[in-house]
Structures are given as structure tokens and as C-alpha cells.
């Protein structure tokens, strides 16, 4: 509920967080808002270098953003 009501969501991405179930839920929701509703609410911070292949395939647009 708080994620839905937030104006911005900050993700501090690490290898372990990317592998967690909680991360998948948060990224699903943020991905939906960013690409389906065209609502730029996510702020991504890479805590450490993360291999693109560590990001689940269903977040292909997120993987593309990480290249920029």
C-alpha cells in the first residue's frame, strides 16, 4: 500500500536484493508504473556492479535502462 501511494520509490540494488522475492514484487510494481502508466517514480541506485543477467528477463526494459 505504501509503495502504491509513494511519489518516488528508491531501489538500492545489490546482487542479493535482486535475487530476493521482495525485490521481484517491488520491481514488478515499479516496472508497471514506469512503463505501463508512464509514471517515472523509480530511482535506481546500484550499490555494487550487477551483471545484466542477474536482473530477471521479464525486466528487459529495466535491463536496458541500466546500460545508460
From TrEMBL:
Annotated InterPro entries: TIR_dom (IPR000157), Toll_tir_struct_dom_sf (IPR035897)
Chaperone in keyword set: no
Gene3D superfamilies: Toll/interleukin-1 receptor homology (TIR) domain
Recorded topology in the membrane: Single-pass type I membrane protein
One GO cellular component term noted in the UniProt record for this chain: membrane raft
Domain TIR: 1-68
Keywords for this protein: Cytoplasmic vesicle, Isopeptide bond, Membrane, Receptor, Signal, Transmembrane, Transmembrane helix
Compartments it resides in: Cytoplasmic vesicle, Phagosome membrane; Membrane raft
A biological-process GO annotation: signal transduction
Role, per record: Cooperates with LY96 to mediate the innate immune response to bacterial lipoproteins and other microbial cell wall components. Cooperates with TLR1 or TLR6 to mediate the innate immune response to bacterial lipoproteins or lipopeptides. Acts via MYD88 and TRAF6, leading to NF-kappa-B activation, cytokine secretion and the inflammatory response. May also promote apoptosis in response to lipoproteins.
Listed PANTHER family: TOLL-LIKE RECEPTOR (PTHR24365), TOLL-LIKE RECEPTOR 2 (PTHR24365:SF17)
Record's protein name: Toll-like receptor 2
Species name: Sus scrofa (Pig)
Amino acid at each position: 500500500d505504501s509503495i502504491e501511494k509513494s511519489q518516488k520509490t528508491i531501489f538500492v540494488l545489490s546482487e542479493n536484493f535482486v535475487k530476493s522475492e521482495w525485490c521481484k514484487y517491488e520491481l514488478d510494481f515499479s516496472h508497471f508504473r514506469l512503463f505501463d502508466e508512464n509514471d517515472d517514480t523509480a530511482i535506481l541506485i546500484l550499490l555494487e556492479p550487477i551483471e545484466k543477467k542477474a536482473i530477471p528477463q521479464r525486466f528487459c526494459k529495466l535491463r536496458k535502462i541500466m546500460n545508460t
